[in-house]
Amino acid sequence: MGTPTESLQEFLPGADYATVVAMRKRNAxxxxxxxxxxxxxxxxxxxxxxxxxxxxxxxxxxxxxxDGHGQILCNSAGYKNPEIEEARQVARDSGLDATxxxxxxxxxxxxxxxxxxxxxxxxxxxxxxxxxxSGTEANDTLRRAALAQGNGLAEFINLRKGYxxxxxxxxxxxxNPGWKGNSTPTIPGMHFTDPDPEDLMRVLSDIPSGRNMxxxxxxxxxxxxxxxxxxxxxxxxLIEKVSTKDGGAYPDEVQTGLGRTGTTFxxxxxxxxxxxxxxxxxxxxxxGGNHRAAAVFIRKDVxxxxxxxxxxxxxxxxxxxxAMGTVVNMAQRDNWTQNAAARGAQLxxxxxxxxxxxxxxxxxxxxxxxxxxxRLDTANRxxxxxxxxxxxxxICGKGGVDSRVxxxxxxxxxxxxxxxxx
Length: 422
Prior knowledge:
alpha/beta
């Protein structure tokens, strides 16, 4: 064996489809690390496209596909985006990788300022910000803020079909049954409601009086749950009921931010219009433009109540923070919100006017902007569509509590021409 780099360089030319799949089956934990039904091995990404191979009848077939999967909504700006790569190179030239949070650094503070400046102008001075590395960490950090708001105590109100992440507390707060099992912890103070006022009132009535409450919810769209809308009216009702008990609201913008819903830059702006801004907001995934990225915004009055230290080793990786700040600036400059609305309308029109007349498959469409869902009649049908899709030049994800939804979430800056290929 040569140097570590030579080992990789020697391995890749012979890493054909069969070899890679066999290695994964031999080494990965299947319950936690299973392959997608399309079975694609990806080897290259450029702009809105992925390249790689699929196996059919024992043969590895090269494919090039529009990425409607989005690496589970991380691909917000396309692969090898030149502006993001330029910003990362600036950070790389510093010679610093992980930067401990107890050092000052100009790139860190530039990125922090960019994120805070993306909030509505009337919210900007209400918040402080902290970097993390994943949506799971961000949501668990919001729970710590909620506990601080309640001086160490909180009753968490979660959506029954919602998703919060794969960490310990995040998985305990997950209402989506597909993500729960015998490794899911049971934590006191976790409550679940359907997005229905009557069910919420039943849940609240079971909580002893005098308890601090925290509403934790995906910001207007059940991401993993299949891109189904959570009606703003219900969320506002939830927020109002929790606030009457001196509780707080902590929306999850891990998937909905950067204008992806085609309504407002952060979906929370729409939900909280005319109300007090939320106590905390989590962001991740697309905000890094395919790079590791997450953060929380914590309202100053809540942050003042926090006691005890917190630390994250890799949260201030300078290349990733350079990407985050650049993505937010690009999204505002290029009005990704408007583009998501237009491309979402284009997808709706395409499915209704082109796909439906030519298809024998029954389906319904739903979602907002570029969180576009197509619900089919069976989960097997979804898997069949996903398996065929790469051969037809596109891929997407799947979701829903019954796995019957195609989740289409391409880069938010996708063009009209490329959208037509989906």
